[in-house]
Design goal:
With 427 residues, the chain is of the alpha/beta class. It folds into three domains: 11-102 and 180-195 and 362-423, FAD/NAD(P)-binding domain, CATH 3.50.50.60; 115-168, no CATH class; 199-358, FAD/NAD(P)-binding domain, CATH 3.50.50.60. Helix content is 22%, strand content 24%. The chain has eight helices and 22 strands. The strands form seven sheets. Strands 3-2-1-11-22 form a five-stranded parallel beta sheet, with helices on one face. Strands 13-20-14-15-16 form a five-stranded parallel beta sheet. A three-stranded antiparallel beta sheet has the order 4-5-10, with no helix packed on it. Helix 1 (18-28) runs parallel beside helix 8. The radius of gyration is 23 Å and the shape is globular.
Length: 427
C-alpha cells in the first residue's frame, strides 16, 4: 500500500507536464514538501511529444533532462504517476486530497532492460505518437520517460503474454497482482497544472480529418517529423509512405470559430511556421509549402521568426480560411476556398494537409474535483473564490511553453505563500 507522508504545509501539484514539473520543482526547492500527481505513466506531458521548440528550433529533450535530474535529486518531491485526484475537501491550509493510483504492474526493481517487451507480441495504438504507430503491451512510454520504468498494458493482464513477460524479467520487477489504490493525505495548497489537449479535428467536418488519410493535425505532424517518431523522421504521407513535399498548413482549425473554440489558441501560428521549416529542411528546393491563415499572430520576439520563415522561397502565405478539404482518386487532399486578398477561388491538391488545431483545457468544466472558477472556454480564472487552488500553465490559458513555465513559477510562489501563512511565516 502506497503511503504519503504529508502535512497541511505540503503542496499538491496536479499534472506533471512542463508546467506541473516547474511548479513542483520551484516549490520543492524552497524547502516545501510537494506531492506531484500525474495521470500518465511518466512526467513531461505534451512537451515530450514535440520535435522542436520555436523560435530557436532547439530540442525539448535538453530542458526536460535538466528538470528530470532536478526531480530525481530533490528529496522534498514525491512523484505519483498513473494517478488521478478524485476529491479535494477542506479550506486553504487545511485540505484533504484523495488520489486514485492505477496499477503499472511494474515495481521499482525495473531497470528498463526491455526483456519483458521482447516476449510480448500484442500491440496497441501508441498514445505517445497519437496513434500513428503501434506499441507493445509491455512498453517504455518513450526513451526519456521518467520514471525510467516499463508499463504492462492492463489489456494483457490475465493472458499468457503477461505471464511470459513476468517470467522474462530477471529482476522480479513485474507484479501482476497490483490493484488500484486510493489514498488520502493532507495538503495546504494546490497547484492545478493539468494542461491542455488538442481540439478534436474530427469535429471540423469540412476538413475531412476522419475521412482523408493525408489530413493530419499539427500535433501529429510534430511526431511525424521527429527522428524518434513513427516514421523515423521521414516526412511521408500516412496513406502510402510517399514523400510529403507539397504541404498545406491550415490555421485556426477549430480556433476563433463560434462553432468550435471561440478563443485564439496563440501557439498555432508559430507552430505552423516552425513546421514549415521541417518541410523546407527535408526537401530543400523541391518543397512547396502553403500557409492558409486569417492573420499571423507572431508578436514580440516571435516577429523575427516570422520574418525568417517568410524569407524561405518555398513558403507562401495565402490569406484565406479554406472552406473545405476534399480528396481525389489518388488520395491527394484538395484544399478549396477563396483567397480573401484577391478573391480568387482555388482548389489545389497537396501531398499532405496539416490542421493547426486549437488548444482546450484537458479537464472539462464539470470534471474538477474541487469548486473552481473557470471562464467560458474552460480555463481556470485567477479568482479569490478558488481559495488555495492556483492554476498553472495551460490549465489557465492557451500558452506556449515559455509562458507556461513563467506562469507555473508564479503559481508555485502563491502556493508557498499559502502554506507559509499556516506556520505564520511572513511573506
Amino acid at each position: 500500500m502506497t503511503e504519503i507522508v504529508a502535512t497541511n504545509e505540503t503542496i499538491l501539484v496536479v499534472g506533471g507536464g512542463i508546467s506541473g514539473m516547474t511548479a513542483a520543482l520551484e516549490a520543492a526547492e524552497t524547502g516545501k514538501q510537494v506531492v506531484l500527481v500525474e495521470k500518465r505513466p511518466y512526467l513531461g506531458g505534451r512537451t515530450t511529444q514535440l520535435y522542436k521548440y520555436f523560435p530557436k528550433l532547439c530540442f525539448p529533450t535538453c530542458g526536460l533532462e535538466i528538470n528530470q535530474r532536478r526531480a530525481r535529486m530533490n528529496p522534498n518531491l514525491t512523484l505519483l504517476t498513473l494517478a488521478e485526484v478524485t476529491r479535494i475537501d477542506g479550506t486553504p491550509g487545511n485540505y484533504q486530497a484523495t488520489v486514485r493510483l492505477h496499477p503499472r504492474y511494474v515495481n521499482e526493481n525495473c531497470t528498463a532492460c526491455g526483456d519483458c517487451a521482447t516476449v510480448v507480441n500484442t500491440e496497441f495504438a501508441d498514445e505517445f505518437n497519437y496513434g500513428l504507430s503501434q506499441r507493445k503491451g509491455a512498453y517504455l512510454p518513450y526513451r526519456m520517460a521518467q520514471p525510467q520504468r516499463y508499463v504492462i498494458d492492463p489489456r494483457i493482464i490475465g493472458t499468457p503474454e503477461a505471464e511470459q513477460a513476468k517470467a522474462a524479467c530477471q529482476y522480479n520487477a513485474i507484479d501482476l497482482d497490483m490493484t488500484p489504490q486510493e489514498i488520502t493525505f493532507p495538503c495546504g495548497a494546490i497547484v492545478w497544472a493539468t494542461g491542455w489537449q488538442p481540439y478534436d479535428a474530427a469535429k471540423i467536418q469540412p476538413y475531412g480529418y476522419d475521412r482523408i488519410a493525408n489530413v493530419v493535425t499539427s500535433v501529429e505532424f510534430e511526431r511525424m517529423a521527429d527522428p524518434n517518431g513513427p516514421f523515423g523522421g521521414q516526412l511521408v504521407r500516412p496513406s502510402d509512405g510517399k514523400p510529403a513535399k507539397k504541404v498545406a498548413f491550415i490555421q485556426c482549425a477549430g480556433s476563433r470559430d463560434r462553432n468550435h473554440l471561440l478563443h485564439c489558441s496563440r501557439i498555432c501560428c508559430m507552430a505552423s511556421l516552425k513546421q514549415a521549416t521541417y518541410v523546407a529542411d527535408a526537401y530543400q528546393d523541391a518543397a512547396d509549402i502553403r500557409i492558409f491563415y486569417i492573420d499571423i499572430r507572431a508578436i514580440d520576439r516571435f516577429e523575427d521568426f516570422y520574418n525568417k520563415v517568410s524569407a524561405i522561397p518555398q513558403v507562401k502565405f495565402i490569406k484565406s480560411k479554406p472552406a473545405s478539404v476534399t480528396v481525389d482518386k489518388d488520395g491527394n487532399p484538395i484544399v478549396n476556398g477563396v483567397d480573401t486578398e484577391g478573391y480568387h477561388r482555388y482548389a489545389e491538391p497537396f501531398d499532405l494537409v496539416v490542421l493547426a488545431v486549437g488548444m482546450e483545457p484537458a479537464v472539462p468544466k464539470d470534471a474538477f474535483p474541487v469548486p473552481i472558477v473557470v471562464n467560458r472556454a474552460g480555463f481556470i480564472e485567477a479568482a479569490p473564490e478558488n481559495g488555495g487552488v492556483f492554476a498553472a500553465g495551460g490549465a489557465s490559458d492557451a500558452l506556449d511553453v515559455n509562458r507556461a513555465v513563467q506562469h507555473a513559477t508564479g503559481a508555485a510562489l502563491r502556493a508557498v505563500q499559502v502554506v507559509n501563512r499556516v506556520r505564520g511565516v511572513g511573506v
